[in-house]
Design a protein that fits this description.
35% of the residues are buried. Strand 4 and strand 5 (140-143) form a beta hairpin. Helix 1 runs parallel beside helix 3 and helix 3 packs parallel to helix 4. 19% of the residues lie in helices and 32% in strands. By secondary structure, the protein is an alpha+beta fold. The chain has a single domain (15-271), classed as Immunoglobulin-like. The protein has four helices and 15 strands. The model has no long low-confidence stretch (mean pLDDT 92).
Length: 272
């Protein structure tokens, strides 16, 4: 029998996992459709807690990893509601609405603002489960509002974050207060500037004059995603209820003048 031999092991940690779902009450009891403005505002207030979670976790990591060699990986995030009626509750199937598109944009904006530490973030899940991008039933398939937000934000992948300052304003319902506006900006690998602006206010449009330091805009084109109601959803019978529409914004004195529809996500590229 050979004598016991000690071995020295080492690992290179490339990422620290964190996951957090948007759940106001446990077990998940909010309906994924058929809700009103109160539930809309409650869910969005809850999802904005991601900012505090990421900030606190990043602060701890900065203490032990000031060079930011280890990524913070938000490996599961998204809305978690009650299962859709008539489905197996263990399968965690739920519908996806305009509210979830806005929720996705808010979280993507948070991750972008922490891009120095958050270098991976994974929606949960992709097909049929929780905040899915695609819903299927045998041969049928429909793209969800969350899918469309991800596609609209594709230009931000591998882009360089650009600091943006704005007056968010306040949307209030009862004892809940939310920012009316959230926004991020970035330059893609070709140098083109992109803006993503979300209007959380479900009732009122917002006019925004974008002052781009060092940039004289010639045009501003892109897409906006909104729908008639906060719980509007795409179904197999009506797959295009919540789909992005092309927009071309006015440019005044080199500054884009943006019209943001209520409860909307808008992404535009600025041509110089």
């Amino acid at each position: 029998m050979k004598a016991h031999q000690d071995h020295e092991w080492s690992w290179d940690i490339t990422g620290l996992s964190m996951h957090s779902y948007t759940v106001v009450r446990w077990p998940p009891s909010f309906a994924s459709v058929g809700f009103g403005e109160t539930e809309y505002s409650q869910i969005l207030k809850s999802t904005l807690d991601m900012e505090d979670l990421v900030s606190k976790q990043s602060a701890v990591m900065d203490k032990y990893d000031p060079q930011k060699k280890v990524a913070l990986v938000v490996d599961e995030w998204g809305a978690w509601y009650a299962p859709s009626p008539g489905t197996n509750p263990g399968f965690l199937m739920q519908q996806n609405s305009l509210r979830d598109a806005i929720l996705a944009a808010l979280n993507l904006n948070i991750f972008a603002r922490h891009a120095d530490r958050v270098r991976m973030a994974n929606i949960a899940q992709m097909i049929n489960v929780l905040q899915a991008m695609i819903v299927t039933d045998r041969e049928k398939m429909v793209l969800t509002p969350t899918y469309h937000v991800f596609k609209m934000y594709a230009a931000f992948q591998d882009a360089t974050f650009v600091l943006v300052a704005f007056d968010a304003g306040t949307y209030t319902l009862g004892n809940i207060s939310l920012p009316r506006v959230d926004a991020i900006a970035a330059k893609d690998t070709t140098g083109k500037l992109w803006l993503a602006i979300t209007n959380l206010d479900p009732n009122e449009p917002i006019e925004v004059a974008a002052n781009l330091a060092g940039v004289t805009a010639r045009s501003a084109v892109g897409q906006t995603l909104t729908a008639p109601k906060v719980d509007s959803a795409n179904t197999f019978d009506a797959p295009n209820t919540v789909v992005p529409k092309p927009i071309s914004e006015r440019v005044q004195s080199g500054k884009p003048a943006l019209h943001l529809e209520p409860k909307s996500v808008t992404v535009i590229s600025v041509e110089q």
